[in-house]
Amino acid sequence: MKRVLALCAAACVSSTTVLAAQGDRGTGIRTSMVETYVEPHQLLIYPFAAYSWDHNYEYQPTMFGFGRDQDFRGHYRTTEAALFLAYGVTDWLALELEGSQITATFEKAPADTFGTPAQIRETGVADIAGQLRLRLGHERGRRPEFFASVEVLPPMHAGRVLIGDAQWNVKSEIGAVRAYRWGTMTFRTTIEYNRGDTHWDLGETSLEYLRQLSPAWRILLGIEGGEGGAPDDWVLVTAGRWRIARGLDFKFANGLGIFSKSNDWESQIGLLLTLR
User: Of 44, 48, 140, 249, which alpha carbon lies 20 to 30 A from 243's?
Assistant: First the structure.
């Protein structure tokens, strides 16, 4: 998997043919939201609903204060009502803010006899994150466009296992995007600080294909995963956008897990409002 992604990333970065951009992504800065770009002095408002489900969620009873570090597979699902905001400050800088009201439900494995509660349900505001998005260089000829970001997540719900985090989290991202006659390719990876082993580690990595099919329709296909270097949590991603009216788009995205540690299904649906 790593070799395939490396070869695809190399194809995205270097090509012997100079290809003109086809307008798949416009002239905006890439945001953290899949298939979404923001232009200078443009405000994106995206309220959406999200759902995820995993029938073999890996956990240890010690996560909940019971038993020992033995792996089990339980059931896990979440529902979210979320809001995503992005503003293009300049041609090379954008700001983001995202948060959600989440409900997470966990059911333990039948073989778990270490005192773990049969079911745990947690609800609250979570995933409050702010990002600084940067365009490091425009696409020119054979050179792709390079982008980066820094994300900050404050501590929330320190006493809750499913939706809480007692410490600050900082993540960074680096990526490249390149237009071809047959579509636009993007390769990106994140870097996260591993507090347990006190070192920096690779986070989520993705390879994406974006195509503007018509003035009203745009689609994305991709694969993402590999957080912490794990080879068994990759997800196939499909996403799309339908232009309802000027400044108003219907957006959807789905993720289908292809390995045992991946979420079985992740979905997202919402309306994107674009203001200048």
Answer: 140
